[in-house]
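Many introductory courses stop at the sequence. We go one step further.
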Amino acid sequence: MTAHTIRIGVRGNRLGLSIGQQTLEALRPHLGGTTTEVVPIADPGLRPSSPWPGGALERALAQGDVQMVIQNAKDASPAATGITIAAVTARFTPFDVLIAPDSAILDELPMGAALSAHTALRRAQLLNYRDDFRIVDFAGSLEERIRMLEEGDVDGLIVSASAVEHLGLQDRVTEIFTTAVLIPAPGQGSTIIQVRTGEKELIKAAKHVNDADARAEFDAERAFFKALGADSRAPVGALAQGDGASLRLEGVIAERDGARLFRDFEIGGTGSAAAMGERLAKKLLAEGGRRALATADLEQ
């Protein structure tokens, strides 16, 4: 490894910094004593007209502002070119969870309960489960959303279990959702390390922290999403779960109002993860998902 300082881009909030620092701690012994600098990068949000939709970190990497990026896999830009995903680290809990007062679970919330759910995917699945819910669209940090809950502005928060784990807030969780209620966003719970494609030394170093099972799950979910050709804000979910030899991949395409969900699954070997994702995408598109995606694009 060369002696220059490696600048590592992370998302510029508490969660992004936590993910970056935790991953860097595992990676640092494989960098040969090279110094590192964590560079928080603000993400102004999704910009449909940008060549890097939702990808401020990838843009910084492509432009040479940083030499490596560590981020939540579900936030990665599917359109990034010239960038290699060098590693997918051991996965945190991929499911969505509820944080509510008085240890309440979803079925105990009152009629018309207000939920902060943040994404079109969660909104659609929650409304499909109970159409009386009032979904509040607030994209602030988890700490800001918890403050909303404590002040009584909402009756519950739907967040990723991995975010809760990274921030040490597990004691606030009142329910963990199975995929029967909420299929999470593709890549949720996974952390990826990205470098420019020609950086062979960095790619080699990152492979030391790659988790084979997590990588197979990520590859299946990412292939599913890419095969759909969906916008990054579309109500599309996927979760692959493996046992080291085989994978079960569940996917969903939702109508934004939750009226209909198109769900199915594929089972196969870990060596065919990408092919599984592509097969499941074709299946759901044929079952009615194509029209749901087209409608979702018009409603954005």
